């Protein structure tokens, strides 16, 4: 998996909702110049379309994680921020599967056929 892959998030250090800062981080640009570009586009197209696009982007983009994510954790974070009920249900099913595996292991170890005393006497 590519560890240098960047993901688009709303920045927690941005001005208003962090959309422009997050987009600048994703594209590797300076946020100041991207803000200037957005203002110029808003002047030529009218403020209302740009405002609606900005608000929609703020609602759709996930917030930046507070700590850096490992590649295997990124998918869970994105699913958790987009649909918590589905992510928690998936996490619950994984924990149930882990619990079943643990119970099988415990039953195998504590079974009558698993004679620890005999094995310990042979080892001495």
Apparent shape: rod-shaped
In DSSP terms (H or I, runs of 4 or more residues), the helix count works out at: 6
Question: Could you tell me the radius of gyration in angstroms?
Answer: 26 Å
Class from helix and strand fractions:
mainly alpha
Beta content comes to under 5%
Give start-end ranges of low-pLDDT stretches.
none
How would you sum up the major sheet?
none
- What's the total count of β strands? 0
Encode the helix/strand succession as letters.
Answer: HHHHHH
Helix content: 55-70%
Instruction: Give the overall average pLDDT.
Output: 79
The domain count comes to 1
C-alpha end-to-end distance:
49 Å
Summarize the structure in words.
It is a single chain. The protein is an all-alpha fold. The chain has one domain (19-123). Helix content is 68%, strand content 0%. The chain has 6 helices and no strands. The protein has helices at residues 19-27, 31-45, 47-60, 71-82, 84-109, 116-123. Helix 4 (71-82) crosses helix 5 (84-109). It is rod-shaped. The model has no long low-confidence stretch (mean pLDDT 79).
Salient structural properties:
6 helices, single chain, mainly alpha, 124 residues, rod-shaped
Quick recap:
This protein has one domain (19-123).
Write the layout of secondary structure elements.
Layout: H1 19-27, H2 31-45, H3 47-60, H4 71-82, H5 84-109, H6 116-123
């Amino acid at each position: 998996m590519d560890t240098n892959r960047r993901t688009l998030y709303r920045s927690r250090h941005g001005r208003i909702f962090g959309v422009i800062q997050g987009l600048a981080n994703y594209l590797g640009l300076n946020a100041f110049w991207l803000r200037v570009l957005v203002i110029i586009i808003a002047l030529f197209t009218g403020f209302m379309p740009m405002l609606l696009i900005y608000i929609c982007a703020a609602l759709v983009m996930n917030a930046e994680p507070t700590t850096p994510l490992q590649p295997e954790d990124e998918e869970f974070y994105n699913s958790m921020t987009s649909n918590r009920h589905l992510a928690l249900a998936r996490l619950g099913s994984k924990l149930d599967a882990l619990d079943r595996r643990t119970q099988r292991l415990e039953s195998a170890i504590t079974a009558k056929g698993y004679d620890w005393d005999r094995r310990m006497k042979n080892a001495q």
